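User: I'm putting together notes for a lab meeting next week and I want to include a structural view of one of the chains we've been expressing. I don't have a solved structure, so I'd like a prediction I can at least talk through. The sequence is below, exactly as it appears in our construct file.
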Amino acid sequence: MTKVIVVIGAGSIGQAIARRVSAGKHVLLADLKKENADAAAKVLRDAGFETTTAAVDVSSRASVHALVETAVALGNVTGVIHAAGVSPSQASPATILKVDLYGTALALEEFGNVIADGGAGVVIASQSGHRLPGLTTEQNTALALTPVEELLALPMLQPDQIKDSLHAYQMAKRGNSLRVMAEAVRWGKRGARVNTISPGIIMTPLANDELTGPRGPGYRRMIEVSAARRAGTPDEVGTVGALLMGADGAFITGSDFLMDGGATAAYWFGELAGIMPSHS
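Assistant: Thanks for the context. Below is the predicted structure for the 280-residue chain, given as structure tokens.
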């Protein structure tokens, strides 16, 4: 039967991972805007990949479930690359929590029900999740295990607790890595694995929005004092994604890989420590 790789969020990071893991497989590209998925599909088709496209709203269970049904109709779902999301400069706190936190939990649940034995998933989180102070054990458990449809009702996620988009984004991305750890247990019962990648500043259209937005100076400072002294590329994330989804990563599941050129190290213990607010 055909092996299917599902890419949710057809931007440059999702495409970069897909190119490394989808040879000989069918790629189902899904995005909120189908024209984005179609554009990505053309690039992949021109590079020799077999593709199908779909529109998906990750904040809608009906929409995500319809995508699952489309994927299953194409063959065995052996890979899921979840790269959909909105950034702090793009949306309100409520929208960020709905898309980045709830939407990710929903995709993990729905695709975890159909992922094939030997399959693997990767969720794109963010270095931002590493900027929050430690949560309590109870908060960690709540973000990891609260039923999807009850997640946004958690007291810690209400407007009196989450007062700006950056805090919402940090909480959502911390929640992604915790959710993936919990889902790794469930996926493991199907013989599948799932991990998180937490990239730093990767040069994508979303990053360009941030660099030219109100937090731009902070982002540029973050790059300047990081060990790498540059932003990352989608291809570098693709390399880590390929490790986590391939045979070389067979012993890795429920993990979160921070790849940010050392920016978070500088934030906690270097030149950024104590002198700047958290930036994604």
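A couple of points you could mention at the meeting. The two ends are 41 Å apart (CA to CA). The mean pLDDT is 95.

User: Perfect, that's what I needed.
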